[in-house]
Amino acid sequence: MELEWYWVISGLIGSVVFLMLLGMPVVFAFFSVNIAGAFIFMGGEKGVIQLVRSAEESVQAFALLPIPLFILMGEIMFYTGIASRAIDAIDKLIARVPGRLSLVAITGGTIFSSLSGSTIANTAMLSSTLLPEMYKRGYKPEISIGPIVAVGGLAMLIPPSALAVLLGSVARIPIGDLLIASVVPALMLAVLFFGYIVVRCAINPKIAPAYDIGDLTLRERLTPFVVYVLPLMGIFIVVVGSIVTGIATPTESAALGAVASLLAAAAYRRLTLQNFIVSVKQTLRFTVMTLFIICGSITFSQILAFSQASEGLIAVVEAAELTPIFLIVAMLAILLFLGCFMDQVSMMMITMPIFMELLDVVEFDFGDRQATQVWFGVLALMMLEISLATPPFGLLLFVAKGAAPKGTTMKQIIVSVLPFIAMAMGVVAVLILFPDLTLFLPQLFK
Hints:
Layout: H1 5-21, H2 26-41, H3 45-58, H4 66-79, H5 82-93, H6 100-116, H7 119-136, H8 141-152, H9 162-171, H10 175-181, H11 183-203, H12 218-228, H13 230-244, H14 250-267, H15 273-306, H16 309-320, H17 324-339, H18 344-359, H19 369-388, H20 395-403, H21 410-433, H22 436-444
């Protein structure tokens, strides 16, 4: 007896969630369900053999090489301590401004995001570097923790972003266009966060008390910035500029960035055999996990196709005659809801194979299908970023809790993050209403 499409989708996704609730790692939960699904819906043993072949082909794509290279960049910056020096340099540059240390978190986090591509590394580094000093200076939790958690999510948007490459691979979105299109939304968020802190601290100075930072000359303030920040911004220009100008592919630019990061660490005399080995080990760990994720996602898509679950779902959407905007908002709402309970990788694996099928049903006046995919990809990244800080189980909330000084409660962290979530949701609404904000950079350099 042939199962209805909704039973197929419910069974597959429900089985994955059930196995994860039992404590099985997400990758193995997906592979277990994929093997069972391939056996049931793809012809028994032949289906399992096809699963292995598809998995092998999916990880051989040259376009996946930026993932380990971008991860390596961030790990080198983190373990060599270059990022911490850059934060200290920004701290000296910003003076006599309301909420100074919170602004240092936003500025430094944005710069480090453009180099690390790792949301967790970004949040952990800022929390361990700035939070103790903020508490020491009398900063209230609502203006100290919130900016760190919020700007930590920018690593998902600002290139180089390993998660953006992963999303592009899973959803079959052009990776170069997705990386470039993410720049403007990320900068919008950073500027909005910056303005919020200045206004909030000007209205209520008690939440971020001013303190004497000593009389530094202009040269003493500028020299650390020139020495430790500008060269790192040069790496960002090398990576993004080579993609934008067409000089290099995303893979080639990632290689340039990784080499530039190594050279920078060596030039600062911070590169040792020990921290290099640790950086490589961490890179290998994340890369292997990512490749397994891609294997599982490709097979999941094939099972949906063979079982005709995708066709059934698309037929229902077409019959409902939903407006394109309504469908987009519904898909983003699902991502936000799942983010309350699930990590970003799991969300991506479960939803993107289905969402990209639904995206083919709707018509947008963007000129071509690729532009629609890029636009939706940026919106999906935005929602994944927001869900990282969404209560009760947002991953960055726990990262911040682990790095925060003793006595910091989860309630304080959640309250501090909520205004930044609201601002990020506002940016998502603007991007939905004005898609050209997302698409003009990729279209400008074509």
